[in-house]
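FIELD: query
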Amino acid sequence: MPKSRIRKKADYTPPPVKQTTAIKLNNRAWVAPVMLAMFLIGLAWIVVFYVTDGSLPLDQLGNWNIVVGFGFIAAGFGVSTQWK
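FIELD: result
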């Protein structure tokens, strides 16, 4: 019985080296202070509302003061998405 021919495989060649591109990072030093300020303002707004039985910070808003406080906190989370 005749022997089959053995195919010679090509030697391994590594993939070409990719050129690294420099990533330019913007200065985002403002993000952390603004984020923390928003969190603290929102927390303070809600605490003041509860401590003063709804007469402060804005009496006209009534229970909507809670929404304003949580709005500040949500804005803090929105700013936190910019943090790198």
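FIELD: remark
The first helix runs from residue 31 to 51.
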